[in-house]
Write a structure and sequence with these properties.
mainly alpha; Clc chloride channel; two-stranded parallel sheet; 18 helices; about 0% strand; ClC-type_chloride_channel; membrane
């Protein structure tokens, strides 16, 4: 009987079903992100008021590592676990992933690791979403879409970028292909989750871009050159974090010792520098990069501290540190390329992430949501060039390769 109805009428039950499921996912992920962001603000203020607390980072890292060893072995994969379950559904993601990654990330920020927040929000969103699998007895295909909606909801709510969050959930899984069958659930989940987070009274950082220059030949050439630098930086970051993690796992068999040793290294480096500039989220430095010249080595400092933190097992995300690295690198390149500081800081902000995560479309939309539509042409060029020049390895090990990034790559000997 349903088959005799016009396609438009047959879609109505589909819309109602996914409005309901995505709405539940959004409420869970948006509320979790709101609590997480408020907790991050509180612990960051505490750390900045008590600089000595950095010396407790090794003990904090050991404690989190021990807790994961005892209770979190099945969820150690984090973002990669979610991506693997979408590609090849096997088991519902354990609910304990959400509180474990929330606790681990908050502790990392309290004591001074250089980690982000996207990974935590995405993992909470995915884990909470997957609990609906048993409740509604969903099929494998519906479960895949539900997990993608959870990823989109977590990303959108933690950054305040609903459209970018929706696209990120579709784009991050595979290089060279997007799952359009999940576009409606991801859109609903991302938009509603962002509104839920705002309803809890959470506000996101505003970056003052100012006037964006009109598109010109000089501007396009400058953005193309900067995009190459952003892409290579994203590639080096992804490879650096993977190499550091592999090295520590080979040399230090007992998992809790890795963040303990890494914490000692980070605390000593902070003490030697006499500055907390390269730990935590680094939002104040990102804001600086939009306002005036910053030290040309700031991007390298954040790069090293973040690789050391993630490579030694501290919990958190990669994205906000990538925003920092990209914004400060763009700031350093601006005088060399004769462009405004704020413009290249904004493009670097999204383009390094685009290269490291292989998500140029989500990052272009993110730039428009954060900085306004005028930056669209420049942001698109910067993100796509960074994507092309970052190679085929990204920060997410479980991301699959459907197609090579260019026809030149397809013609090259393998």
């Amino acid at each position: 009987m349903m088959k005799r109805l016009p396609e438009q009428l047959r879609l109505l039950p589909y819309l109602l079903k996914w409005c309901g499921l995505a709405g539940i996912v959004a409420a869970l992920a948006g509320s979790a992100s709101a609590f997480f962001l408020m907790a991050l603000d509180a612990v960051t203020a505490r750390r900045e008021a008590s600089p000595w607390i950095i010396w407790l980072l090794p003990l904090a890292g050991f404690a989190v590592g021990w807790i994961y060893l005892q209770f979190g072995r099945k969820v150690e994969g984090g973002n990669n676990l979610l991506i693997d379950e979408i590609h090849d559904p096997k088991h519902v993601v354990p609910l304990r992933l959400a509180p474990l990654v929330l606790f681990g990330t908050v502790v990392s920020h309290l004591f001074g690791a250089s980690v982000g927040r996207e990974g935590t929000a995405v993992q909470m969103g995915g884990a909470l979403a997957d609990q609906l699998t048993h409740v509604f007895r969903l099929r494998h295909e519906d479960r895949r879409i539900l997990l993608m909606a959870g990823i989109s909801a977590g990303f959108a709510s933690v950054f305040g970028t609903p459209l970018a969050g929706a696209i990120f959930g579709l784009e991050v899984l595979v290089i060279g292909r997007m799952r359009y069958d999940a576009i409606f659930p991801c859109m609903v989940a991302a938009i509603v989750a962002d509104q839920i987070t705002l309803a809890w009274g959470v506000h996101h950082t505003h970056y003052a871009l100012g006037v964006v220059p009109a598109v010109s030949a000089l501007g396009v050439a400058a953005v193309l050159a900067a995009g190459i630098a952003f892409g290579v930086t994203g590639m080096l970051f992804a490879r650096g974090t993977h190499l550091a993690s592999s090295f520590m796992k080979k040399r230090v068999g007992y998992a809790p010792l890795r963040p303990l040793l890494g914490g000692l290294l980070i605390a000593a480096a902070v003490w030697l520098l006499g500055s907390q500039r390269y730990i935590g989220l680094g939002i104040p430095v990102i804001v600086e990069a939009f306002q005036h010249p910053v030290a040309p080595w700031d991007f390298a400092g954040k790069f090293l501290f973040t690789v050391a933190s993630l490579g030694n097992g501290f919990k958190g995300g990669e994205v906000t540190p990538l925003f920092y690295i990209g914004a400060t690198l763009g700031n350093a390149l601006a005088p060399l390329l004769h462009q405004p500081f704020a413009l290249l800081a904004a493009i670097g902000f999204v383009a390094v992430f685009a290269g490291a995560a292989n998500t140029p479309l989500a990052c272009t939309v993110m730039a428009i949501e954060l900085f306004g539509p005028q930056i669209g042409p420049y942001a698109a060029l910067g993100c796509v060039v960074a994507y092309l020049f970052s190679g085929h390895v990204g920060i997410y090990r479980s991301q699959r390769l459907e197609r090579l990034k260019s026809a030149m790559d397809e013609d090259a000997p393998r």
